[in-house]
Model the fold of this input.
Amino acid sequence: MPLDFTAIDFETANNSAASACSVGMVKVRDGRVVDTAYWLIRPPLGHDDFLEWNVRIHGIMAVDVADALLWSEQLPDLTAFAENDHLVAHNAGFDMGVIAAACAASYVPTPTYDYLCSLQVARKTYNLDSYKLPVAAMAAGFEDFEHHNAAADAAACAAIIVHAARRHDAGSITELAELTGARVKTLGARAEDVIRTF
Done:
């Protein structure tokens, strides 16, 4: 099986996991980036306050998403881009929790995806003082990106997985998970396992 996956990253408007305000995605085919996507999201009602702390981190304000699609309206575009891929995210529990919580807050079904956490893979691949995304990405040779820009973070996550797969001589996401002892988990069917509020 080839190394095919979609890396994904969300930024949120506030402490609610349902408050996704941007998404970045990077599609990888046979270990190479073949497509990218990024867009702003208007968070569901009740989860749409923009906290100063979050704005300071990612720079997105309420005015920026005023004309963006709601979570429920943009979800078909997200799933169309990701297709049936494994999803990969750094600290994947957060990003999968965003999908599950935003779907619950929007009264739409949570899509089912298998996913792998690049943070777990990095911990089994590199010997670092920190495994935060910028540090792990640097170990993978991916430097000088705009951290907390969802598109850049998704690209960094993809770079970690591609580099780790080469280092472990893994030909697929499943094989990489087996070789590193990281677990491939499932979103959707067991969404209650990953819904978290931050």
User: Anything to note?
Assistant: Residues 150-168 form the longest helix (19 residues).
